[in-house]
Amino acid sequence: MSTPQADSYVVVGRKEKFAYGLGDLASNLSFGFVSLFLLYFYTDIYGLTAAQASLIFVIARVVDAIFNLLVGYFIDKTQTKHGKLRPYLLYGSIPLGVLTVICFTAIDTDYKFAYALISYTLYCIAYTAVNTPYSAMTNMLTQHEGSRASLSVYRFTLAILGYLLVSTQAEVFVGMFVEPSDGYVFAASIFALLATFLFLACFGYTKERIEVVEVAQTPSLSSLISSVKLNMPLHFLSAYTTFVYITYTLWMAVAIYYINYVLNDSGFIGSFFFVQTAAYAAGTVIAGRLVDWIGKKRLALFTLPLGAGALAIQYTIDPSNLMLIMACVCVYSVALAINFVVMWSMVADTVEYSEWKTQVRAEGAIYGYFNFITKIAMAIGGGLAGWLLQYYGYSSETISAEAVNGINLMMTVIPAVLFIVSIVFIRFYQIDEHQYRDMIQQIQLKKLQLNSETA
């Protein structure tokens, strides 16, 4: 089926895809570092309890999730010479870099909890102000579904590079200093500076192509709410995403503890994340071809049970059997990577669904809502990590057998259950590849009709 939208239904070139991917490389240099090390920094370096750290993660991410909705609203009201999304990268990257460093600055004060809560909350808000519009850019660069899937592949492939850098090099930077607290400030500074430059490169080498039809005025708040409320594919996608993101956040937060106390080998951190990241990269790279072959929904339904099974098996393996443990980690990582590519390419399709159903194109509202869902999920995952550590009696001074078993469960069985629950919701996602192409054609026909009526 041909499409009449030649100016926006375009195949995006490799240079621009790479430039777009630099944004997620930057995101993971910042957010990946925070996700992997901040909980450990709070409990083992800064001296907070696991319960205090858990409360910080919950409060900060709930505030951030609410702010995310406001960002979505402002995006849909934004019209500049740089577009509606890219300006947020231009003006938000520097504050984000500064706040990344502040989160890992161990201020010696009687108000450690308050300082950590405020600094992390501000960091989350700054990250959302940059990452929400960045995520929505997939939808504004092209309407070509193949290019959108390819953009997601580039995005997550370069995100992996950022994750690999922080997971393998952070401990190297920290180890350069006698005081670990000084090492974390240095590592955060290096990653934040590089992330800032990469966000600016992403801004400079991408182009927004989708034109928003002016209908006498910008969309009203009620129309933006309706674009989300009436979007059933978005709601099923969001429920599926919630459980995948809780899995991801919990697993990320507990990984350092798992290596240190279950595998009992702190020297294995770099190797663990190198192998895990390689598997995640492989999953990201093959995701695009698999989507073209069997479709997004079917791919999710195949890989989620596969990942859950690997996690469940991992719990039964003796910690000394590193090869078999890493095999399970790799299967889980491949499944996780594929589902991230799937979900983020699906959310772009729900924007067209909303425009087709309500005649309102609302990238900001939909991506703001979707990012709100991911932030709530990460709040639950981060809070769950700290709460379960406290529940299983974790203390950085004395590690009990109960705490070690609890950490093992948090790394394996609990994420497996969450993966299984996510399957229930993705089964009800309605948009397939044929329906998507039909919606694109109908949307363009309506635009042509509107233009002819107003000419």
TrEMBL record:
Keywords: Membrane, Transmembrane, Transmembrane helix. It holds the Pfam family MFS_2. It comes from the Bacteria. GO terms for molecular function: symporter activity. One of its GO terms (cellular component) is plasma membrane. GO terms for biological process: carbohydrate transport; sodium ion transport. The chain crosses the membrane at residues 21-42, 54-76, 88-107, 113-132, 153-178, 184-205, 237-260, 266-287, 299-317, 323-347, 368-389, 409-429. Belongs to the sodium:galactoside symporter (TC 2.A.2) family. This is MFS transporter.
